[in-house]
Amino acid sequence: MYALADCNNFFVSCERVFRPELNGRPVVVLSNNDGCAVSRSNEAKALGIRMGDPFFKFRDIAERNQVAVFSSNFALYGDMSRRVQEVLRGFAPSLEQYSIDEAFLDLSGMEGVDFDAYAKEISAACRRLTTIPVSVGIAPTKTLAKIASKLCKQYPRLQGGCYMHRPEDIGKVLRKYPVEDVWGIGRRSVKKLETMGVKTAWDYIRLPETTVRKLFMLPGFRTWKELQGTPCIGFEDYIEPKQSICVSRSFAHEITQLPELSQQVANFAEGAVAKLRKQGSLALEMAVFAMTNRFKESAPQTTACAYAALPEATADHKAIILAAVEACRKLYRPAFAYKKAGVVITRLVQADHYTPSLFADQEAAQRDQRLSRAIDSIHASFGPGALLFGAQGDGTIHMARNHQSPHYTTLWQDLPKVKVQ
Ligand SMILES: [Mg+2]
Q1: 9 CA distance to ligand 1 centroid (A)?
Q2: pLDDT for 253-276, tens place per residue?
């Protein structure tokens, strides 16, 4: 059996942990630069605010209905996600983090457990220990576990936990389950299925095997088998290191000056280095890109990119930030107003598989490695940004975040204060 634990309206739920007066009220969290809705409370959904709606389009509705609007606060969401996972880890021997708000648990070897009670227990423990509402679905395959967790959201009487295993129950659920909501059915498949008159997950499993294989290839076939209770999607508690890492943002205001652009790029590079070091990789190549605001048609437009080859495969803060600043200088033209920029590091190799060049300056390399490790440990103790390179300026990224909540769980000065009377 597999369990899928999915946090309900996750970003909104994180905001509510420290603002309990917002329970029962419409709440929306916006994407970077306060662009569009990325998380909505059930009350906000009921007002007709849809996923991905741009803020300017629903600003009126929000004001009229006193919707609480937040900029995204990823320091808070990341930390709350870690807490939920810690609770989940206590319930199964292995866990696969699927996204910031979802995780699979492998329950094999736990036969004999009352899984319905177990699902409810997991959900209750998450609620008690983190305040985040979590829907837990348990089923014989990952695809069915996903569906079971969706049912918890639909039916509050399930108390956050649903065990779905009897074929007749599964059949009943699949007959009503829209095929486009099935995990693994992509948008392109949905179009094909529409023309074939396939509307529900049940219709899908009734298709002959040869048709499924021919039209939807191996992934579609796996989903078809999984819906029928045969596990085909493996459990992945090992995360493949990424082959490239990108950190990019659009700015709150356009940038025309090189020093300002270069500071932003240096900060993106530092973000990329942190990710690179976390997965134990070294990079051989990097690129910096910058673009103007394509919605401002009257202004001169450009999308510029500059490459930098790194002399040795490296994960050093200094080497990568320097290369990024160099590349930024190469691509910058004073005639343009830049709205977005980013850093991509590519050609990654695993650090423990890499043999450095015989002619590299070993002493200098070791010195740089010591520096990078010192930076890591300072960041680990005092937060990323506690120590900056001069090239990074004051370390801020120019994003519009007009509605951001405090970093309740990750910054000393933002810790909530409790008064005892
Ligand atoms: Mg969720």
Answers
A1: 5
A2: 899 999 999 999 999 999 999 999
pTM of the model: 0.81
Q: Tokens in use for 163?
A: 């065990």
* Ligand 1 midpoint to CA 101 (Å): 5
The DSSP bridge pattern shows strands 94-99 and 102-106 to be antiparallel
Query: Separation of 102 CA from ligand 1 center, angstroms?
Result: 6
Give the DSSP letter of residue 370.
Answer: H
Looking at the fold, whether 139 and 230 belong to one and the same domain comes out as no
Residue 258, domain extent: 245-392
Host H or E run for residue 162: strand 161-163
Any idea what the CATH number is for the domain that residue 34 is in? 3.30.70.270
Strands, sheet with 2-7, edge to edge from the N-terminal-most edge strand: 94-99, 102-106, 2-7, 134-139, 161-163
Let me know whether 271 and 285 are in one domain: yes
Report the pLDDT value the prediction gives residue 38, as an integer from 0 to 100. Answer: 96
pLDDT-derived band at 237, boundaries 50, 70, 90: low
Residue 99 CA, ligand 1 centroid: distance in Å: 9
For residue 188, the CA-to-ligand 1 centroid distance in Å is 23
Measure CA 314 to chain center: 26
Query: CA triplet 106, 108, 113: central angle to 5 degrees?
Result: 105
- Burial class of residue 276, CB neighbours in 10 A (0-12, 13-18, 19+): buried
Q: How far is the CA of 224 from the centre of ligand 1 (A)?
A: 23
User: For position 398, what pLDDT does the model report?
Assistant: 80
List, as ranges, residues with CB under 5 A of the ion ligand 1.
Answer: 6-7, 10, 101
Q: What is the mean pLDDT of residues 186-210?
A: 94
- Centre of ligand 1 from the C-alpha of residue 362, in Å: 48
Write the single-letter amino acid at 47. L
pLDDT at 239: 67
Number of independent structural domains in the chain? 3
CA of 47 to the centre of ligand 1 (A): 19
How many angstroms separate the CA atoms of 227 and 204, rounded?
9
pLDDT in tens, 366-406: 999 999 999 999 998 888 888 999 999 998 888 778 898 99
| Mean predicted lDDT score pLDDT of the chain | 93
